[in-house]
Amino acid sequence: MINIGIIGMGTRGQIYAETIKQSEHAVVAAITDISNESLELNTKKFNTKGYTDFEEMFEQEELDAVIVATPDFLHKEPVVLAAEKGVHIMVEKPFSTDLKEAAEMVKVIRQNGVKCLVGFENRWNSPFVAVKEAIDNGELGEINALNSRLNDSIYVPTKMLGWSLNSTPGWFLLSHSIDLACWLKNINPVSVFAVGTRKKLVSMGIDTYDSIQATVTFSDNTHATFTSSWILPENMPLLYDFKYEIIGENGSLHVDLHDQMVKKAAKSYEHLHTLGTPIDGRLTSAPSQMLISFIENILYDAEPIAGPEEGLLNTKIVSALHKSIKEGKIQEI
């Protein structure tokens, strides 16, 4: 059995723990969380050991792998420690919000020969898997343009995340859609230009961007445009609105994850979240499929499809777009 530790038992950590419970090849060996209440609840729920300090967990437990599900800006220390101890790593996106830290993380991971999967979960999201297959089959020809819109309701930065002032729509949202562009095109980006707006959340005491728009240029002189905001009204039919358009020389693809086929009209109007609906109690969501893939990478000694180099590239792009906002200039990647 693969002994897996989980660092951070928020919503994501609990999804991963539930996924591991259903695995025939892995077990939740230990968890860490800074909240004693969370530890008490989840150690009982998952029948495992709990620590408030991930360093102590590494000292006390024999781990084969660890999942880093801490906030965006707190990935480096557990990733580096895990790598130094020879423990395989699955780390949430973004890989890091600091370019220097990201480069150091890649170096330590590669020096110690551990596997690392960066949590770009949409590579396991069935609509985008279908899109990737169509592109790779040559159905669209050369990809000439990509357009993405990924927005969240204001519930996310004001109620769901207690640390949103230390993040932005760039790190929390655009990291997803930008990774998809790099994965779908499989061509290096060379520059980015971006603008951002800070009004609504600042007025609420949360000093971060409301929205960001960016254009990325690739080495084949094609472009992708991205927009993300996390101040949509709470009464929108679904928590998030994700749309993606891929335009090729011979055709196009259009993805709308806000419309998941089932609409409910009762006390309120809602779009039911159908992607990833458990079937016979089995988890089928993109995060769960990603974790299953990571477990198989360890079992069969295979490299993850979203490794630390992809994480570093993503950090380079998102760092450059934030610099572009501040300086009002195109930034090279």
UniProtKB/TrEMBL annotation:
Residues 2-120 form the Gfo/Idh/MocA-like oxidoreductase N-terminal domain. Residues 128-253 form the GFO/IDH/MocA-like oxidoreductase domain. One of its GO terms (molecular function) is nucleotide binding. InterPro entries: Gfo/Idh/MocA-like_OxRdtase_N, Gfo/Idh/MocA_Oxidoreductases, GFO_IDH_MocA-like_dom, NAD(P)-bd_dom_sf. This is Dehydrogenase. The lineage of its organism: Bacteria, Bacillati, Bacillota, Bacilli, Bacillales.
